[in-house]
Each structure stands twice: as structure tokens, then as C-alpha cells.
């Protein structure tokens, strides 16, 4: 049960992953980034999600170190995720990319390492690299991002280790019910990126009505909807007020009727690329 900011879900390999965290997509290197990560940890966040392509792993690492000091906690208390980019998919290339990410972050292990996109003909060798890093204890859990059902089925034909997480675009306009059901059946934890649809849902009248009923913001309602659907979520923000507000989700609960109303907003609408047609 998700009762507070430190609540975790147990991945199929026994690793505990926080239900809620901070994403840093498109946050540039610099003091704003460092402060955002530090502030999140200071206010109780225990999960930070970045990626090689974001170009900000160094600042994230600095923010984590500063945050640990302010919060008085240890490295083991923070769950850190990064991802390998398409250009580095391949056994040796992926292992090298992992070392680069680790060096930039200033860490000696990752909690979760993901294949960022299912680039055709490339992700199986990359997965073999992730399996080797996992076997060596360099990373506590491995997974994928933006994989559809057919990608997962293809990957698992040859995989020795089943992905623990699938991080995908997920919000009220893109609920991906079939994918979530498949991941649940396979014991793969679904995680939402762009849970607020890059701000495009923040004036939705249906969501506003539900938010008003609870004395909450639309963002809080959406993030609570994620959690009640059993989806890990990592909203992005650099502002302290928003970082705190986004995490104030544990003093209310959406009714079954409200959950259904939000589900009904689905239009299979993406703000990011279609995984089947993204070959960057």
C-alpha cells in the first residue's frame, strides 16, 4: 500500500523501488538542477531518474551527494535510475555507456538501468550487457523503457533475466491498459514518464472537478491516479514549491468512480514518439 513518500514496490527480483520519484528530463546541467535534486531528497524523495541522453548526469550526481548530506541519509537510501541511449545499444557499447554514466554520476553502482528505446535489431545485445552488469552486481535491477508488448515478447525469447521495470509514457490521455495488464501478468513493474502530459492536462475540466472535490491540484490528482493504478511515477520539476506539492499525495484517495472518470479520458494520445516508429 502506498502510504507515504518512502513507500516502495517490490520488484520481481526482491529489490524495493520507491513508488514516487523525481524526473529530470530536459533539465540542463547547472545549479538549478543540483538544487532540484537536493531539494527533492531533503523533502523526502528517495528516487531520482535520469538518462544519458538528458546530458545532466553529472549535476544529478552532485545533487544526490548534497541531498544525502542535508537529509542525513546514505547512498543506499536513494534509488538512482539511468538509461542507455540508442547510439550505444550493443554489448560492448552498452557496457561502456554504463561506465560513462556511472562516472558522471559519481556512483559505484546504479539501482536501475534501462534500455531507453526498443531500437530494432539492437536491444537484444544491449540486454545481454545489462544482464552481465546485473550478474556482476554493478546494478541492482535492470529494465526497459518505451517497450510495447511485442518488444517485450521478442526480448524475453532470448533473455536470461526478465525485465524488472518498463518505463513508458503514461497519463490520462494514454492509459495503455493492455500493456499494463501484460506487464502485471509478467511481474514487470510499469513506471510512468510524462505523467502530467507535459502540462497539457492542467486545465482539463474533468480533472479540475475532481481536484476541487479533494482540495487538491490537478497535478496531485493525476499523480494519485498513477499510484492507485499501481504505476510508479516520476514527475519533473525544478521549483521547490512544486516538488513539495507533487509529493503531497498521501492524505487523500480517489474513489472508484473518480478513477473511472479519469480512465475515460484516454484517447491513446502521445506527446512523445511512438516506440514503433522511433529510430533516432
From TrEMBL:
Pfam families attached to this UniProt entry: Aldo_ket_red
Domain NADP-dependent oxidoreductase: 31-266
Domain of life of the organism encoding this protein: Bacteria
UniProt-listed InterPro entries: AKR, AKR5G, Aldo/ket_reductase_CS, NAD(P)_OxRdtase_dom_sf, NADP_OxRdtase_dom
UniProt xrefs under SUPFAM superfamilies: NAD(P)-linked oxidoreductase
Protein name as annotated: Aldo/keto reductase
Species name: Tumebacillus amylolyticus
